[in-house]
Write a structure and sequence with these properties.
heterodimer, A: alpha/beta, Rossmann fold, B: alpha/beta, 5-stranded mixed β-sheet, 17 helices, 12 strands
Chain lengths: 155, 427
């Protein structure tokens, strides 16, 4: 389980997010999450060989095809695919590897961690953003935040 | 690094509210508004598509109500909660979230009379049939499950029979059948019992009772554990595109809080039993002192039960905290901090003597409620369970002479004094 301080750091320092397996269908969870992050100030880089463009951004077939630095690699693929994606994430110098809810790959986690990446696993980037910086609490979700300080500034 | 785990009393006071960045208001603000302005047409579309989190209309969500929701979710150690206008609305919205015409519910037969009627009469009219079983033997639930069963339903403590459910055993039966166990945890409150710890999927509350605690306010809460696998094949309504909300798949989209999101976006949005922000505020004032009140409720109730046990005018006493009560062993397991505020008894002389007792109490309030800070008394056969036949009443654990006492927070000697003087007049 990743602690709150680590999640806050990943979300504050990872403003460019490559979303591997992003769908162009508006009702898919990957589209929900990417659109939300885009609306909250993040640069979304779609990674999916099936499309040319998603959410107004050029879509790349894989991580190594992206011609500029990426902070966070966000994975919406089946667990078994996470290992080669982790290798690519290391190769392009990403700071963080984020595996979405249901994506569990301990080998990928270990590899990325040993290369110095911060790894978040089995969590949704949108839900964690909304949990820590506001939004999720409006829908009765147990954010586990206990604090008497005013709501934190958004990343 | 791991996050600090906060204790129950801290959660009662803090969960769900961070002082807002504009005013710093320490108390929870009352957002007495129906609607919320959009940033732009695109923002409005995103909100309606559930692509972003935000408030649209207070029938669906409200920032004051949300504090209560998150606080109760935290106290139950659950994933999420949704608050509604009453406890009856909570069970209706929760059950209709996964049940439709042709489906079946297997429920304990010792439920609160209003719940029994909701299932036995009103749900039956909708084509949802309930099989009532003797919950004292958990295997009775297993025997009643069919291919149409969608949920097992019971109360932590039966009302008013006060039989303690073997939650762990019934959960195991439910989970083996791929079904969720819904527990009405009203009588215990999250302080005395945590149904999720024993495998329940959903916990329901009439917040009107101990959560509010002062007899001022109606409310209900549905809490989701976040652990039930709604994609196990039995619940297409959780996994298939929603006809009621333009094709959203609730479990896929919201995962471990998909059940409460569906309650909100389908149940609250289309049936409408919303909790008002002002009522949420009042309930929150009660929740702040929940643990303190429950400890006193329990110690006073146990003392009253022991007093009645030895009183010459009393025919029988039922309180799970008494060693000779049939639910004592289960009570020790599931209600280790105390067996709650409610006890029942019969007076020598039967129902007429009971009526006389109720007429004679001085400050015990004769009314149809439990969980007030004040002591309350009622004769269920002629009031809360009046809609049932005498056979049904007995099956629900309501003999004609039963008197139900919800022991309050008054000075214990005064409660005993009032009971004693009324008993002496009941001859």
């Amino acid at each position: 389980m990743t602690d709150i301080a680590t999640l806050q750091r990943v979300l504050r320092t990872g403003k460019t997010i490559a979303v591997v397996g992003l769908s162009a269908d508006w009702f898919r969870p990957s589209y929900f999450a990417a659109k939300f992050m885009q609306e909250h100030g993040y640069k979304i880089i779609p990674v999916n060989p099936k499309y040319d463009e998603i959410l107004g951004e050029k879509c790349y077939p894989n991580l190594t095809a992206i011609p500029f630095p990426v902070d966070t690699v966000d994975v919406f693929r089946k667990s078994a695919d996470a290992l080669p994606i982790a290798k690519e994430a290391i190769a392009i110098g990403a700071k963080h590897l984020w595996l979405q809810i249901g994506v569990l790959n301990f080998e990928a986690e270990k590899l990325a961690q040993s290369a110095g990446l911060t790894v978040v696993m089995d969590r949704c980037v949108k839900i964690e953003y909304a949990r820590l910086f506001g939004g999720l609490h409006w829908f009765g979700v147990n954010t586990k935040i206990v604090s008497a300080r005013k709501q934190m500034a958004k990343p | 690094m791991t996050d600090h785990v906060f204790g129950f009393d801290t959660l009662c006071l803090h969960s769900g509210q961070i002082p807002d960045s504009d005013t710093g208001s320490r108390a929870v603000p009352i957002y007495q508004t129906t609607s919320y302005v959009f940033d732009s047409p695109e923002d409005a579309a995103s909100l309606f598509n559930l692509q972003t989190f935000g408030n649209v209309y207070s029938r669906i969500s409200n920032p004051t109500v949300a504090v209560l929701e998150e606080r109760v979710a935290a106290l139950e150690n659950g994933r999420a909660a949704v608050a509604v206008g009453s406890g009856m609305a909570a069970q209706m919205i929760a059950l209709l979230n996964i049940c439709e015409a042709g489906d079946e519910i297997v429920a304990a037969k010792t439920l609160y009379g209003g719940t029994h009627t909701q299932l036995n009469v009103n749900f039956r009219k909708l084509g949802i049939n309930t099989i009532f079983v003797d919950s004292d033997d958990p295997e009775n639930f297993a025997r009643a499950i069919t291919s149409k069963t969608k949920v097992l339903y019971a109360e932590t403590l039966g009302n008013p029979s006060l039989n303690v459910l073997d939650i762990e055993a019934v959960s195991r039966i439910a989970n083996q059948a791929g079904l969720p166990l819904f527990i009405d945890n009203t009588f215990a409150s999250p302080y005395l019992c945590c149904p999720f710890e024993w495998g329940a999927a959903i916990s329901l509350h009439s917040a009107t009772k101990f959560l509010g605690g002062h007899g001022t306010t109606m409310g209900g809460v549905i809490v989701e554990s976040g652990k039930f696998p709604w994609d196990n094949g039995h619940f297409p309504t959780m996994t298939m595109p929603s006809l009621g909300y333009h094709g959203v798949r609730f479990y896929e989209t919201f995962g471990d809080f998909g059940f409460t999101m569906k309650c909100r976006m389908e149940g609250l949005r289309t049936f409408g039993p919303t909790l008002s922000p002002f009522n949420a505020f009042l309930l929150l004032q009660g929740v702040e002192t929940l643990s303190l009140r429950m400890d006193r409720h329990c110690s006073n109730a146990l003392a009253v039960a022991r007093y009645l046990e030895n009183h010459e005018r009393i025919a029988w006493v039922n309180y799970p905290g008494l060693q000779n009560c049939s639910s004592y062993a289960l009570g020790q397991k599931y209600l280790s901090k105390g067996a709650g505020a409610v006890l029942t008894f019969g007076i020598r002389g039967g129902a007429p003597a009971g009526q006389k007792f109720i007429e004679s109490v001085q400050f015990l309030s004769h009314l149809a409620n439990i969980g007030d800070a004040k002591s309350l008394v009622i004769h269920p056969a002629s009031t809360t369970h009046r809609q049932l036949s005498e056979e049904e009443q007995i099956a629900c654990g309501v003999p004609p002479d039963l008197i139900r006492l919800s022991v309050g927070l008054e000075t214990l000697d005064d409660i005993l004094w009032d009971i004693d003087q009324a008993l002496s007049k009941s001859k």
